[in-house]
Design goal:
Strand order of the largest sheet: 3-2-1-4-5-7-6
Number of domains: 1
Helix content: 40-55%
Structural class: alpha/beta
CATH topology: Rossmann fold
CATH superfamily: Vaccinia Virus protein VP39
Length: 218
């Protein structure tokens, strides 16, 4: 099986982003620079460590979007592991399938979720990753229930999202700005049956790249 993490982030990701942003006037060199820039601030090794996965693990990237994390996860779990790349968008799914084929990621399965169901196998996953997608989940309670059901006992949910400009705003106001505060999400995870075990109020970056991270356990 071919798993080429650097190829994914510098070539495969560049191709995928190019298919969606060239209409906005970006050129291929700009797309490649975006991928390299994200490598610099996203703290991928720390995210992988928080997931507590390794060779043979089964992990889901829910709201996989452009597939940025898929190659990292595929390399980490190896040929005996499995990555479920989950999204509700037909366009994202089509791009993910092509990216996976181009990169030879034979341990990755694309999953077409519903808005209220991640469509994951029950009690099979060691970890679930959600990066800047939770604030888009209108049926978040049902989605959390589905992810809880998919995790093995002790399995982890790692969630990262944008820090809102005003944490005192209502949940609806924050999500309409494509943000959501850690103080809103942590109680939602606990209400769903997760135990929050790690909390990082300022996990990454500056400006629009400012993100928090929560680590929870089933």
């Amino acid at each position: 099986m071919r798993i080429r993490r650097r190829s994914l982030t510098q070539h495969g990701l560049a191709w995928l982003l190019a298919s969606t942003v060239l209409t906005l006037g970006f050129q291929p060199a700009d797309v490649q620079a975006q991928g390299r820039n994200r490598d610099n601030w996203q703290r991928v090794p720390d995210i992988i460590a928080a997931l507590a996965i390794g060779t043979g693990s089964q992990v889901a990237d829910v709201g996989a979007g452009d597939g940025y994390f898929v190659g990292f996860l595929a390399e980490e779990v190896g040929a005996t592991g499995r990555v479920f790349a989950v999204d509700v968008s037909e366009r994202a799914l089509s791009n993910l399938r092509r990216l996976i084929e181009n990169e030879g990621l034979e341990n990755v399965e694309v999953v077409h979720s519903d808005y209220d169901d991640p469509k994951l196998p029950e009690r099979m996953l060691d970890a679930v990753l959600i990066v800047t997608a939770y604030h888009e989940m209108t049926e978040y309670e049902a989605m959390l229930a589905g992810m809880l059901k998919a995790l093995k006992p002790g399995g982890r949910l790692v969630m990262i999202d944008h820090i809102p400009s005003d944490a005192s705003d209502s949940r609806n106001r924050q999500t309409s700005d494509h943000d959501i505060g850690i103080d809103i999400v942590a109680p939602e995870l606990e209400a769903a049956g997760f135990a929050v075990i790690e909390r990082y109020e300022e996990f990454t970056g500056s400006g629009r790249s400012r993100q928090w991270m929560l680590v929870a356990r089933r």
